[in-house]
Predict the structure of diguanylate cyclase.
Amino acid sequence: MKKSASNSVSLQISELEAENARLRAELAIARDELETIFDHSMMGVALVDHNRKILTTNQRFLDILGYTSLHEILGQQTHKLHVSHKDFEGFGEHYDTTLRHSGVVHVATPMRRKDGSEIWLDLVGRAIDRTTPPDLSKGVLWMAYDLTDIRQAYQQLREANAELEGFFANCMIGIIILRGGRRIRRVNQRLADILGDKPPEWYQGKCVSEFHVSQEKFEEFGRLFYNSLVLRDHSQVEFELRRVDGSPVWVSVSGKALDDATPPDLDKGVIWMVDDISTRKEAEEQLARIATTDSLTNVSTRQHFMELANRALAQHLRNSRPLTVCMLDIDHFKQINDTYGHGTGDRALAWFAETVSGELRATDIIGRFGGEEFCIVLPETDQDEAQQVAHRIRTAVTGGSSAAASPIPPITVSIGIALADTPASMEAVIQLADRALYAAKAKGRNRAEIDETMVRG
């Protein structure tokens, strides 16, 4: 009986020893794993006691602060690692407040490396004791991450943003950034100057349609040019916009989608570069006027008149509506030049052209053919209507020039009228009108004659 009890106790002891050995083995494995993690962690790790003395660190912590051996800082206060005594004391507040309250502290702070240089670290401290409040005498585990690269990247980003802001604010080209629904996200000062006297902030949130001359033009712009953004076609276009005060302004525009996807999502933003080309447009229009407008009489030159007349004739042939041509000649104009001088003759020509133009519709075409001879095209006008126009012109010229306040001597005009009916050309119709003009002069001048000859193509 005693022998059996003794065997049972021996068995229990053996089992306990085996369990103890197993636990020790697992503990050794866990310790090895922890040491491996501790030694090879990408973050610096330091164990500090309640007096803020360094108990141990891993190699990464030493590398971050520029030390080669743990013995260089082992047992020393962390005062050595702070940039100043004031900073060291200020950091101690974390022990007295945050750590005692929650057991964890997270802070970014500058530290001092072995060579005296400054380094910014992201520090996370945790009390070893997990009671509440924790017993800090059991130590604090600090984990340190080097923020140097991140801070340098942020600094570079800040500098790049400052450069971009400087470019955006001072660029001599207008810049507008749109977001979803073609609403304005930002404009620069130059764009604000182009569109009026409001500050850039005033435009934020407004729909860009407010700055098109009409809703139709806004929609037309979208149809014509937003497809090119999807296709990443960086074409430059010219378009007329409307300033804040309602006046028109011609601009040159090029845009790019901000989204890098293919195709890009335009709701994520579009940047437009806008240049004011009003001065150039005005110069082009002035050059066009010089090239197409007689400088003395302000009506079309002969070449430009023929271009417009041929278009009118082509439309006449398409829609079969009547079209009439009138040739006009100031009677005895040479006598005016001989009697009053060429200056008066020039004033007479200018007054005559202005008076005749005042009797015409916006769709009618008038040009100076040379000297005192002018030609008129009257679209959608038959023979009777053309004779009424001729009568009005003769009355206005004779009456106006004979008035007491007239700036010129009294003049009269002879007019030849030809009706186009499937003509061979506009030149052929003008020849008929010119023939009718000669008939009017032959019959005593100051009258209108019509040539009803039909010219077949």
